[in-house]
Amino acid sequence: MVDPVSRRQFLRSAISMTAASYLPGGDFLAQAIRGPSSSWQGDDSSMHTSGWQNAGIEDLTKSPHAKLHQVPIRAVTIKSGFWGRRRQANVANSIPTMHDLLEANGRMNNFRRLVGKSSAQQTGPVYSDSDVYKWTEAVGFALQSGDLPELRQMTEKIIDDIVAVQQADGYLNTYYVEDRASLRMLPQTQSTGHELYNIGHMLQGAIAYYRATGERKLLDAGIRFVNDFLLPNYGPAPSKPIVSGHPEIEMALIELYRITADKRHLNLAGYILEGDARAPFPERRTIYMFSGTPFTSRTKLEGHAVRAMYACCGATDYYMETGDANYWRTLNTLWNDMVSTKMYVSGGVGSRSEGEAFGDAYELPNFRAYGESCAAIGNMMWNWRMLSATGDAKFTDVMERALYNGINSGMSLDGTLYCYRNPLAFDPSTGDKIRNPWYDTTCCPPNLERILASLPGYFYSTTSDGIYVHLYDNSELSWRLEDGTPIKIVQKTNYPWDGVVDISISPAKASQFTLHLRIPGWTEDAQVNVNGKALAGITPGQYLPLNRTWVSGDVVRLQIDMHPQMLIANSRVVEDTGRVALQRGPLVYCMEEMDQPAGTRLVDIAIDATHGSQPGFQSEFKPDVLDGVVVLRHDGVLFERSSGERLLYSQYVQRPQKTKRIPLLFIPYYAWANRQPSAMEVWTPLFRS
Amino acid sequence: MVDPVSRRQFLRSAISMTAASYLPGGDFLAQAIRGPSSSWQGDDSSMHTSGWQNAGIEDLTKSPHAKLHQVPIRAVTIKSGFWGRRRQANVANSIPTMHDLLEANGRMNNFRRLVGKSSAQQTGPVYSDSDVYKWTEAVGFALQSGDLPELRQMTEKIIDDIVAVQQADGYLNTYYVEDRASLRMLPQTQSTGHELYNIGHMLQGAIAYYRATGERKLLDAGIRFVNDFLLPNYGPAPSKPIVSGHPEIEMALIELYRITADKRHLNLAGYILEGDARAPFPERRTIYMFSGTPFTSRTKLEGHAVRAMYACCGATDYYMETGDANYWRTLNTLWNDMVSTKMYVSGGVGSRSEGEAFGDAYELPNFRAYGESCAAIGNMMWNWRMLSATGDAKFTDVMERALYNGINSGMSLDGTLYCYRNPLAFDPSTGDKIRNPWYDTTCCPPNLERILASLPGYFYSTTSDGIYVHLYDNSELSWRLEDGTPIKIVQKTNYPWDGVVDISISPAKASQFTLHLRIPGWTEDAQVNVNGKALAGITPGQYLPLNRTWVSGDVVRLQIDMHPQMLIANSRVVEDTGRVALQRGPLVYCMEEMDQPAGTRLVDIAIDATHGSQPGFQSEFKPDVLDGVVVLRHDGVLFERSSGERLLYSQYVQRPQKTKRIPLLFIPYYAWANRQPSAMEVWTPLFRS
What we know:
Largest sheet of chain A: 7 strands, antiparallel
Strand content of chain A: 15-25%
Oligomer: homodimer
CATH topology of the largest domain in chain A: Glycosyltransferase
Number of strands of chain A: 25
Structural class of chain A: alpha+beta
Number of helices of chain A: 17
Helix content of chain A: 25-40%
Shape of chain A: globular
Largest interface: A-B, 58 and 58 residues
Strand order of the largest sheet of chain A: 2-8-9-10-15-12-13
Distance between the termini of chain A: 68 Å
């Protein structure tokens, strides 16, 4: 039916043809927007909001409690640079090879077999449909950055196969069919069967594809599921109860509401977030699911990390539509719990392998860190929503930390291998294979693909008084202010390798508005000048409001101090006792054993902090290392352990430790495990005496 | 049918009546042995070995590859002292309250209902039968130390209930009955259903009870299961395959062989240890089960820790009967793997909660330590067997470490609460309730009870050239040398609180033999004198062979240096970086927050090692604390953290840390969590600069 190899070759050549127009340009995007732009901020009869071309990742145009409004992915072109390279790998390698792997592993045939187009057996776990939907969403976001005709054609065939499976009553699932059909939507099935999780991803995929192409086929199927199957039968009494076994449908329903303006979609999300007492589950299960009890009764992050993050995304979306103060209080309680006690320095969350779960407060093991790629993505998506609600830079700091580190580590440099776990220390002798092309539970790979494909949508927001700049990279925005004035913003930078960002602001006409410039919270110092004139009062961890009458060609220069820093962890993080992590700019660093002097083992190495008053790092850009990275060097010591110290336990003897000075080399954490297997650690002992 | 309350009151009074004769005396034991003692080393027609009264925990009399031979539990009387108190709590509180809880939770009714003596439903997991059997084994061992008529009467009724359930074909199980009977002994059922695990515990319970009373009812039922049900139907082709889903049957079958001399019992154990390729399971499962592949193909400890330890026990027993060099090589490989990389300083093993499993090498988290009580017991039982095979004191050191710490912590001081997990650090704010009277999987409580009840059997061994002294406590041995000479050995000591042990050696006639005196490996120094004359060349970690002609009244004085020690862990144990554990004698110490100066938190405390060249501890016996313990005091420092340091991550600043001197108080680890909930830690930071 499908020949993955020839299909892949076909797609590769298709992509190499379009790559030239995809990456550097962007003019065709302005072209694409020009037409429909007249409908901006206006309702048309069928659509609640701004039209499919003009919606961001989320369409917050009409969300009463969103302070910021997102800009379309197509309005931002990320050019060659840090993310340009990653996004090139995503569209040229990741998305096509994942297509082939989904085919090879029967995920598309799961649909086709139900309409007689395949004789294959059902394969994969209950959530296998979501793999296809998440990949479709990645395609949708990619197409919002520019047409890729072959990819689009391939995807539309898959969409045809999907919608063909939908039943007359609106139900759509490839697992609860045939002899399993009787289990559909039973409370127990909902708690483990991922039926609505799958539909949540279907809706997100459909919306991304619709916003790329205007094509509603998958979106209409999703609306049929919601309107024909779900709403008439499920919900508050007397309907049958809903159990959100894996939160995801909540945020999808609210984004659907932003398209349909159908209040039932919002209300259904609210009902699900509240939990239905008619379908009680043991506390252990409601903790794990992060659902089934009122969201507003939660006081800490616990249970399955991805479930918790997706539930928080849905709850933030619900807050942005309703302004419910209980939701806002709970969201902030949970956020404080996370950033104060449960988040890795990488922005990864969910430290516990058992149950893929949040651990106790300060339970942040490094070797055993779970840090699922999907959970870091959920963390970014949640902080993006919290940022949209508030404009508070503390959320951007977390978002950027997760993006550059705990998410970015999840995909290999060439875009074909993925981490499921993202540990902060690694010993290859355990036999763990950390990067793989495929997992039978393949949630993370297409999730990483959709994040990279959607990345332009995270760079800017508009607000009533102007525009926010969240992220820095070589890029170009072609959009307009909320008063309708077209504006172009060009960033020229070598960020994150360098802290200088030159930003040219070109409104179509001289306009007074505020440019909210993010000053990252991790920097010790930043300088800003406008048209060469230095400003005072720059505070890291805030948006710097630059209110003036901007005219085309105005240039803002941001200079962020990028000196490498040593971070310590709270003393309650027991595995980090006596250790430091290095960070330069937004990037967390690590050591791989292969980069240290021959024969030395990471376990015998410490950073030497005995000299001088401040750490002495040297930064050097190495174009040939790991696709080009800034490496850090620092003096280190090699402990010469006695034979007793090689034992598991030995007696402490108070004496100067025998050490030898050695040079140490650090690479960005995201780039680890891209060469031969090698021991790795983020938190390195500090030698002080 | 049974009224637990009145039964308990009845038993309590019965025990208080017998307690006087139970604890201090022991003369009645000599009486009990006198009769059958003439058969020692002689075969009688039906029995392979030395007669039921004279067998130790294991009867190694005829085991060709056992260097040491065990002495009967009844030959050793543990008098008032460290273990006397624990054993008093065991027999007065633990065994009777566990009886009532097993009743209250339906574990005995599971048997009775099958013969119409109860209308209760089946309750508990598949391994519930083993709870009753393990409790029976505890009773059997307790009765070997002296008669407890009411306990015996109660147990014989339970035994009647058990054997009544046995089917004509020999099968006996209360779970795979009625509509589950069709699942019996299917390979999949064997892998998870614990049928043979239950029978293994039944055999061990039956043997202990037989060796206490000469009563064979339960033993004969066990033999019927093996001879009538198992042997004719299961085993190498053409019989049906056996899968040892939870190893346990192996060591039980070999101990049965030592009673029956039926080679089929030994061979069946060997077959099971080899695994049957006709019942293949995924590697993940054979790792978890620590069975299903040839034992001799194992190269490291992994998978479920209790399963692994029990498999190692069975394999060591198999070695002692067969001398198979491949087994011996594998056993030593696994032992080295454990003590070099996978054992807590408490002697606990199985660090990983997920799968109750061994972790990777050096994966020894403290807060998240699993350290199941059963696994520490398995560790002790395995090392006891390795010691029996060799007479090598390195195994006694591990056995003692597990006994005094990781096992001993498993039972509350009053004997009514049990730990399932035995973490090495604890934060009560997690809500964990660490000591409980009952677990639905209640494997650990009766396991702890059987170990304490069997403890006298671990004190001595005989060998062709004399006698080994393994453990020290106020106690009396009445037994004989292997040449038949009766001998009495009396230990007078306050061990482990004090290092002086006076040992009087009284053979019935002057005899030349070797007294192998264990010099613990943890001490820095030990002195030994015989009749007041000091000996030279004492080496810790070895048995000191004292060969001479001993005459009644000879006295050996052993003085073991008990100075508290600070231990460091191998630098690869990341959670112990910069930390030390305290040990005094065989006891590992810990801090409970409630014992430190008011208002200080463990997380802000370190041991002050800035003064002098050696740690300055003060030891003090506190009779009113925790039933009487030696506490340790040491200078400490309290870190005054800056507000930044209270964050999850903050920038490292090179400056002297602000500290305040405070006194610290340490208690033995085994006694933790016997007062109000309080934070606890074994591994404490060391402040050196």
